[in-house]
């Protein structure tokens, strides 16, 4: 029995997604983070760099990881001196995760190295390929954002 177009697309996307994700994360970790820092830890640090002082739940949601994984990740960041846990002054039941000075320096250095790496990679591409790659990333991001909305969101 022949596959219809949707079934073919489902199989193709399902096959491509892990390959692309693996390539992107391998590049990210290999080229921009020291070997003792995991991809999950880099992601948590980058999220905190964008909006410091998140609760564990907020960090878990932003990183799309479980609470136990977020807790273990933050434990390692605290041990490394990159983050701290602080009580919220307005509600002592709430604990916020904040970057330390060392954590902020790490995020700044990581972002700098990531931009350098991407710049070197893009310089190797012809202008038309570079434009197509940027457009593809923008399209993927837009489509994934739409998929992330609930049906009630429209």
Please describe what this structure looks like.
The protein has 154 residues and is mainly alpha-helical. 69% of the residues lie in helices and 11% in strands. It has six helices and three strands, in the order ααβααββαα. Strands 1-3-2 form a three-stranded antiparallel beta sheet. A hairpin with a 2-residue loop joins strand 2 (83-88) and strand 3 (91-99). The longest helix has 28 residues, at 5-32. The radius of gyration is 19 Å and the shape is globular. The mean pLDDT is 86.
Strand content: 5-15%
Spatial arrangement of strands, main beta sheet: 1-3-2
Quaternary organisation of the protein chains: single chain
Return the string of H and E elements: HHEHHEEHH
The percentage helix is 55-70%
Largest sheet: 3 strands, antiparallel
CATH class identity: Mainly Alpha
Strand count:
3
Domains (count):
1
The CATH superfamily turns out to be Winged helix-like DNA-binding domain superfamily/Winged helix DNA-binding domain
CA distance, first residue to last residue = 34 Å
Content-based structural category? mainly alpha
CATH fold node name: Arc Repressor Mutant, subunit A
- List low-confidence stretches: none
Mean pLDDT score: 86
Based on the structure given, which CATH architecture is correct? Orthogonal Bundle
Molecular shape:
globular
Q: What's the helix count?
A: 6
